[in-house]
């Protein structure tokens, strides 16, 4: 791995947090960004861990508020390297602690936790948001696997939003909306020819455009994961794990999820 790659990893959000155990203002801001980005997978894990209860949103909010307190990263092992692993472990610990003491007792002791706003799309009054790339029957997942699956979907959705935003900036929204059907789903040749004509492209140019879009999509997924690990030696393992998490442990994965897995897999 060259020096340029090493420098890139030294400045990711997770390495910034780990370097000072979250004590610097920059690290706390980076941790808050990570928490906001991965609020959904934690809420899904809490909900799956407590079937039949309706307190998942409150517990998730309390978990992130506690996580953002100044001493929450004191025991993090520098060599673990993955924000995903840290977040899941912290959520498990929080739920185990909650089982021993009531939620009211947690909120009453000591100073009030730092406020955490997960954003308007996940406010307490907002309906639960469903991932765009969901599975046909998610109830077959145990909590840990469900967390990993939602983590993978969160990364893929963020990459797709970024890809769409880039196209919008270039004034290519219509082009993107047509090409993306071949990015994450299978389409027959006749429809591809029809789409190429609608964009005033030859079939060959259309294939090249899809290839370039898919390549950029993979890079955006790569960048999302890179911001949550602490070194290049960990990155490939997380990329492989993301691909596995999209379809593992559940034979009924829907067509969109399988196509998304194929889109981000190496060619």
UniProtKB/TrEMBL annotation:
<dbReference type="GO" id="GO:0006352">
    <property type="term" value="P:DNA-templated transcription initiation"/>
</dbReference>
<keyword id="KW-0804">Transcription</keyword>
<feature type="region of interest" description="Disordered">
    <location>
        <begin position="104"/>
        <end position="137"/>
    </location>
</feature>
<keyword id="KW-0731">Sigma factor</keyword>
<dbReference type="GO" id="GO:0016987">
    <property type="term" value="F:sigma factor activity"/>
</dbReference>
<keyword id="KW-0805">Transcription regulation</keyword>
<dbReference type="InterPro" id="IPR013325">
    <property type="entry name" value="RNA_pol_sigma_r2"/>
</dbReference>
<protein>
    <submittedName>
        <fullName>Sigma-70 family RNA polymerase sigma factor</fullName>
    </submittedName>
</protein>
<dbReference type="InterPro" id="IPR039425">
    <property type="entry name" value="RNA_pol_sigma-70-like"/>
</dbReference>
